[in-house]
Amino acid sequence: MKTLIVYSSKSGNTRKLAEAVYDFLPGENFLRTVEEKPDSSGYDFIVVGFWLQGGKADPESLEYLATIAPGNLFLFATHGASASSQHAQKAIQEAKELVSSSKVLGTFNCQGEVKKEFLAKVQQKDPQPPWVKDAPGAVGHPDGSDIANLQSELERAVTMLRAEK
Ligand SMILES: Cc1cc2nc3c(=O)[nH]c(=O)nc-3n(C[C@H](O)[C@H](O)[C@H](O)COP(=O)(O)O)c2cc1C
For the chain, what is the mean pLDDT? Predict the structure, then answer.
């Protein structure tokens, strides 16, 4: 299996998960940043990880997702919002819509610690963005149990991929 893992990360949370994907998946894995705009054709599996900015995937990832060659995909996101929040679910849903000609075999949402200085700034806003109330719960994430949960979702996706072949 040949897998392309592409991620965007400003403060390291999404990179941590992308590296865990790289270490975990069997076969030949290629780890690239979204800034490198890697050609996504010729892979059995493509994993894209992004962080949320303004309720959406970060702008570079939005741009990249729209260029992906149709294939078998897995999407994951890190964010200050809780993983089950409408905010985080809507963002992953919107990312899925950008890759509608691909098959999305799985998704994973994960809280990611928000930089203290940035959080202090957004906490001053009135009204506060909807995710800010969840952000204290993101401290220390992603952690080992987030990585284990991501691995389970990946395993499920890879099983589906193999069943198709
Ligand atoms: C400029 C900026 C905007 C953000 N906007 C959101 C947002 O809309 N929703 C959210 O849940 N988290 C938001 N966050 C929190 C980040 O998505 C979160 O900390 C993420 O894990 C950062 O990933 P990274 O470490 O890979 O850069 C924002 C953070 C920054 C710095």
Answer: 97
Reported confidence tier of residue 136, pLDDT bands at 50, 70, 90: very high
pLDDT band at 164 (very low <50, low <70, confident <90, very high): confident
Contact present, 60 and 34 (Cβ < 8 Å): yes
Is 78 near ligand 1, meaning CB less than 6 Å away? yes
End-to-end Cα, the chain, rounded Å: 11
Nearest CA to ligand 1 atom 30: 53
Domain covering 2-164, topology: Rossmann fold (3.40.50)
- Nearest atom, ligand 1, residue 56 CA: 8
Ligand 1 centroid to residue 13 C-alpha, Å: 9
* CA-closest candidate to residue 1, choices 21, 19, 26: 26
Domain ranges for the chain: 2-164
CA 53 to ligand 1 centroid distance, Å: 5
- C-alpha to C-alpha distances, 131 to 9, 83, 156, nearest whole angstrom: 18, 10, 29
